[in-house]
Amino acid sequence: MTKPGPAAPTLAVWAVRLWIASGVLFLASAAWFLIIGIGSANAFGIGLGVVSAGVGVGMLLLTRRTGSGDPRWRSVLAVLSLTVTVLGMLMAALFLDPFLLISGIVGLVGSMMAYRPAAEPWFTRGGVGG
């Protein structure tokens, strides 16, 4: 019988929760963009929905991998969060549509929490899955 490891720091738990919330928000915005795009026969809306769905699924899959003990997964997730936040700012400015911006900011805040000194050792030792 193995002994359970130490409890995850609060910052690490909240980082994972915010990454999951960000992925779910991206999937919800993907559904919204697809419904609007298909309803109005707008190829841009359909494409934006497909890309948003891909980002949402990617965020959820990468969140699962962040606790494996390899800090590169956390870095990949942080870069993805930053990239989609910047693109969300562009979409919000050009089309007055804040869905992607809000989804990206939630993930970006999770990434910032994951790099705090209290959470750092938990992500590098394998806190979530191992």
UniProtKB/TrEMBL annotation:
Lineage: Bacteria, Bacillati, Actinomycetota, Actinomycetes, Mycobacteriales
Sequence intervals crossing the membrane: 12-35, 41-63, 75-93, 99-115
Superkingdom of source: Bacteria
This protein's UniProt keywords: Membrane, Transmembrane, Transmembrane helix
Species the sequence originates in: Williamsia maris
Official protein name in the record: Integral membrane protein
